[in-house]
Please model this.
Amino acid sequence: MLILTRRTNETLMVGDNVTVTVLGVKGNQVRIGVNAPREVA
Model:
């Protein structure tokens, strides 16, 4: 398993056109946002 560490507002690129951003951390919950083209969903 690959484990990555990111802080709030840091982004991870998946391929050329998908980004995963850490939006916030509260206790043991993490909010993430994913930007991807519609055809990827």
The first strand starts at residue 11 and ends at 14.
